[in-house]
Specification:
Keywords: ATP-binding, DNA damage, DNA repair, DNA-binding, Hydrolase, Metal-binding, Nucleotide-binding, Stress response, Zinc, Zinc-finger
Protein name: DNA repair protein RadA
CATH superfamily of the largest domain: P-loop containing nucleotide triphosphate hydrolases
Largest sheet: 9 strands, mixed
GO molecular function: ATP binding; ATP-dependent DNA damage sensor activity; ATP-dependent peptidase activity; damaged DNA binding; serine-type endopeptidase activity; zinc ion binding
Shape: globular
CATH topology of the largest domain: Rossmann fold
Family: Belongs to the RecA family. RadA subfamily.
Number of helices: 9
GO cellular component, one term: cytosol
Distance between the termini: 82 Å
């Protein structure tokens, strides 16, 4: 008799091996490798299934789109990221670091949706119903159509959906929900996959949108299998610095709209508030021009934002001067210092500590901020000042040339709306600009 082939697989990541191992070689978990049936390589013959009725394939022009239209959630900034609102039957994943405000934002969405449309089911798998009620009371998110359930088992969550029959389901969070059909630790890839597949199937079959909260790893990626991001329709990332109240929501994947929109929010004592015009959050309030400052127009998605860049240059006797940055790319700052030294004649930077930061804690990494950073460093080196009505944007090459920045029309229009009368960029260098005395701008 031929010997039956067996293999072993990890219940956490799916890694397979021909013999048992105490520790998985792929994910490093202990005691997760179990015996599994080996594939035989023989495919069973499939009988074709008769398709009729609404399931029959039709020309694409005959497909109705009313059932897939967006409906506003009541929060304009969140709808901006989603492409106009929530689509019925959509699976939306919102990820973010602990404490950034994911639960607060979705509780606000649940309250708005319950007041405007139908019943909303909020399933908390991390907190008790009373704890969620306290947060809702503090943020003013109480409504009779908002139903709370503290469940951690997948079957119980589906039962709650059958009992409430909501128009929107929120699960906080997908990593803490378990399933009797899959073993392993809570939050493991196998369990997360099973929970996500089941909830997405419920959303599609019943045409009910499902919002899932996802944890992130220390690298900022969504915890669990990468398959989770492929299964859902929309992947949003909620980010922000705990030291500042500003929060951003970005769409990393969106099957129903663009992925270059950004929603701005502000964490307050009463919850989370929208910031429809964050123009003044990243500018200092100094009336008199100060050396070492320059304003740039940065692009957050498709939204132009004015950001003030500040620089401080201090002479030092150290053999290796320090380059300290906050909110900007340190590699680009080091490159700009080299360009100012070699092309701009600012040799004093070789023996000076350089500190560069942005106002408000915003992070600017695009090359379009090169010109403003260079002007701020040059102003801090010579002691000159840049006028408060001046804004600059453009990429600086190693040859000292200023290259045009993308979305130049949007940046220029926003600068004019905010009252900036002088603009320095690659296309408008002929404009008379109040450059500080002694400051050498990079050659155009």
């Amino acid at each position: 008799m031929p010997k039956t082939a067996t293999n072993f697989a990890c219940t956490e990541c799916g890694w397979s091996t021909s013999k048992w191992a105490g520790r998985c070689a792929e994910c490093g978990e202990w005691n997760t490798v179990i015996e599994a049936a080996a594939p035989t390589g023989i495919l069973r013959a499939l009988n074709p299934v008769a398709i009729g009725g609404d399931r029959r394939a039709r020309p694409i022009n005959e497909i109705e789109t009313d059932a897939a239209s967006h409906w506003p959630s009541g929060i304009v900034e969140f709808d901006r990221v989603l492409g106009g609102g929530i689509v019925p039957g959509a699976a939306i994943l919102l990820s973010g670091e602990p404490g950034v405000g994911k639960s607060t934002l979705l509780l606000e969405v649940a309250s708005k949706a319950a007041a405007a449309y139908d019943r909303v089911l909020y399933v908390s798998a991390e907190e008790s119903a009373s704890q969620v009620r306290l947060r809702a009371e503090r943020t003013g998110a109480l409504h009779d159509n908002l139903y709370l359930a503290a469940e951690t088992e997948l079957g119980a969550i589906v039962g709650q959906i059958d009992a409430v029959k909501p128009g929107l389901v929120i699960v906080d969070s997908v990593q803490t929900v378990s399933s009797e059909n899959v073993g392993g630790l809570a939050g493991g890839p196998a369990r997360v996959r099973e929970v996500a597949v089941t909830l997405i199937r419920v959303a599609k079959e019943r045409n009910v949108p499902v919002l899932l909260v996802g944890h992130v790893t220390k690298d900022g990626n969504v915890a669990g299998p990468r398959l989770l991001e492929h299964l859902v329709d929309v992947v949003c990332q909620f980010e922000g610095d705990r030291q500042t109240p500003l929060r951003f929501v970005r769409a990393l994947k969106n099957r129903f709209g663009p992925t270059d929109e950004v929603g701005c929010f502000e964490m307050t004592a009463d919850g989370i508030a929208e910031v429809p015009d964050p123009s003044g959050l990243f500018l200092s309030r100094s009336v008199i021009p100060v050396s070492g400052t320059c304003v740039t127009i940065a692009m957050e998605g498709r939204r132009p934002l004015p950001v003030e860049v500040q620089a401080l240059v201090v002479p030092t006797e150290a053999s290796n001067p320090r380059r300290i940055t906050s909110g900007v790319d340190p590699a680009r700052v080091a490159m700009l210092i080299a360009v100012l030294d070699r092309r701009g004649g600012l040799e004093a930077l070789r023996k000076s500590d350089v500190y560069v930061s942005t106002v408000g804690g915003v992070r600017v990494t695009e090359p379009a901020a090169d010109l403003a950073i260079a002007l701020a460093i040059a102003s801090a080196t010579t002691g000159g000042t840049v006028a408060n009505e001046t804004a600059a944007f453009g990429e600086i090459s190693l040859a000292g040339d200023i290259r045009p920045a993308p979305a130049g029309k949007q940046r220029t229009s926003e600068a004019g709306r905010l009252g900036f009368t002088t603009l320095i960029d690659a296309d408008a260098l002929h404009v008379s600009v109040a450059i500080p005395k002694g400051v050498k701008a990079p050659a155009a």
